[in-house]
Amino acid sequence: MHEWIDAGEEDMSHIYTANIGNIRIEYVKNSKRTDIVAAEAVEHAKNSVSDTVSEKGIEEIAIIGAKNVGSGLVIPEEIDGFPVTAIGKKAFLGNRLLRQVTIPSSVYEIQDYAFAQCTNLKTIFILNAEIKLENGVFTDCNAITDICMGYDETDDVSALLGTLIYRLKAEHLLSDAAWGSKSWFEKWDMELLAFLRQNDEEGYTDLVLCGEEDIQYSLAEFICNKRKNKSALCLIRLMHNRMLSDETEQILKEYILTHIKGCPTDEAWQALLSEFPEDIAYFRLFAELGGVNADNLDSMLVDMGEVSTETKVFLMNYKQEKFGGADAFDMFEL
Description:
The protein has helices spanning about 155-160, 180-195, 205-210, 220-240, 245-255, 265-275, 280-290, 295-305, 310-325; strands at about 15-20, 25-35, 40-45, 55-65, 70-75, 80, 80-85, 100-105, 110, 125, 130-135, 145-150. It is α/β, with parallel strands linked by helices. The chain folds into two domains: about 5-155, Ribonuclease Inhibitor (Leucine-rich repeat, LRR (right-handed beta-alpha superhelix)), CATH 3.80.10; about 195-334, no CATH class. The strands form two sheets. Strands 1, 2, 3, 4, 6, 7, 9 and 11 form an eight-stranded mixed sheet that branches. Strands 5-8-10-12 form a four-stranded parallel sheet.
């Protein structure tokens, strides 16, 4: 594995720039020399940034930052004819504009905290399925919904991969070469079931003792947030139910139904309302599970306020179809 120079420690003359559309990319170069030893190509990275190509190797590029980045970023496969093979340490740290990133198949390494604290980042396309992710690449990227490994379309696998950073906190499954296989789904489900069994108070003491000033959760708020997260994970898995066993499916349904509106605690309803407010598919799933009934539907509509007309109309029509009463337009007064 190459040891890339930390650009922050080098003279600024070693940092190059290139315009890719409206985006100004910053990058550094490293030389990759290949020698034939025992019929195998052995890669060797020099310990200094080189401006030229050596006779025995080619240069490769690490992206270390960019300016004028909007909501979507497509990392180029090459710049000036040289392959882009790495995203550097903290390259896009704290970029709050990013919502979608595409990383080409030429990139084999994303270094420490490259996209950490990109709080609005939702969808990540990593076209090299064998990429190496270093420490904390997506730390505090709490909005991630999909991570597509090796392809450029969202599906059941990408949705479950997207939970591993913030929700399920099982990043080791990102590096599992078997992702998408039956065994990988089973491992994901085992992580979720273990999380559901976890005491809702577990972790609160550690949170308090860490002493971070921006954490002001009471124990009650911590428990509520944890149950909402558990509920959201159950809904995500039930929505993306590929290779879900009947036994696990029943456990997830039971968890949801013990936390719907009208129960002593209603975190499953809160999770639906806060995490999927405009997604009719999730509202339909919630209703099919039994989360909507004659006793709780009116109070659910009141909770929704004006958050989303489309999903609110769905519940209004559901009420009319299942329980009778006024049509959707009459019920807008709710």
